[in-house]
């Protein structure tokens, strides 16, 4: 009850306020990016949604600006060697090696601008500004035992998180899983603000951005 009053409630209030302010203030950037994608080659969609596992194991759709070609999944799976590298590398590929990424998508990913639509997720309530990054169902195996998976899913996933602040894609599994679980154990407002500050620095430096 004490944690609910002194952490979860103010955290949710901050999520709502920050999301509304971000969606309003950044609306011109949303429009520019949307038009940029719309009139570019490689994709017919402006936004991308994907099924992720959220708090309590509940599935939800995460929103991003489209950074891949339309037939991205088919392209990746058609190359078994590349797909294996994708899985072994924590379900990511360096942008230069990823045939799915559009030219605009590479810029959006490097600057994390593709993540901006997730402020809609935080406003809805299936994500928080700060928390462990949400994963697809098959990635849960990287978190180990059922107890560790349950801990990971005990909090809302975040737009930004300790893993991103620590180096993003430069840090793969199993270290990534441990970092995310450490956040769950230590979660408080002070840590959340620190993560936000460190993530902004990491984005500007371009660390691990792919």
Automatic annotation (TrEMBL):
Pfam families registered for this protein in UniProt: Bac_transf
Compartment(s) of residence: Cell membrane
Hydrolase among keywords: no
Membrane-spanning ranges: 12-37
UniProt KW Cell membrane keyword: yes
Domain Bacterial sugar transferase, residue spans: 11-205
Key words, A-Z: Cell membrane, Membrane, Transferase, Transmembrane, Transmembrane helix
Family: Belongs to the bacterial sugar transferase family.
Official protein name in the record: Teichoic acid (WcaJ
Source organism of the structure: Fructobacillus fructosus
């Amino acid at each position: 009850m004490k944690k609910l009053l002194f952490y979860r409630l103010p955290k949710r209030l901050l999520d709502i306020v920050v999301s509304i302010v971000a969606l309003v203030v950044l609306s011109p950037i949303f429009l520019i990016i949307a038009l940029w994608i719309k009139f570019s080659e490689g994709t017919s969609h402006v936004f991308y949604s994907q099924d992720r596992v959220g708090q309590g194991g509940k599935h939800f759709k995460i929103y991003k600006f489209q950074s891949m070609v339309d037939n991205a999944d088919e392209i990746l799976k058609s190359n078994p060697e590349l797909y294996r590298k994708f899985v072994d590398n924590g379900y990511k590929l360096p942008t230069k090696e990823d045939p799915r990424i559009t030219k605009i998508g590479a810029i959006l990913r490097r600057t994390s601008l593709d993540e901006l639509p997730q402020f809609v997720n935080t406003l809805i309530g299936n994500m928080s500004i700060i928390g462990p990054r949400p994963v697809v169902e098959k990635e849960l195996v990287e978190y180990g035992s059922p107890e560790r998976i349950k801990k990971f899913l005990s909090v809302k996933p975040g737009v930004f998180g300790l893993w991103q602040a620590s180096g993003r894609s430069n840090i793969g599994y199993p270290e990534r899983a441990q970092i995310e679980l450490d956040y769950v154990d230590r979660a408080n407002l002070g840590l959340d603000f620190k993560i936000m500050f460190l993530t902004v620095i990491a984005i500007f430096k371009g660390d691990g951005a792919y």
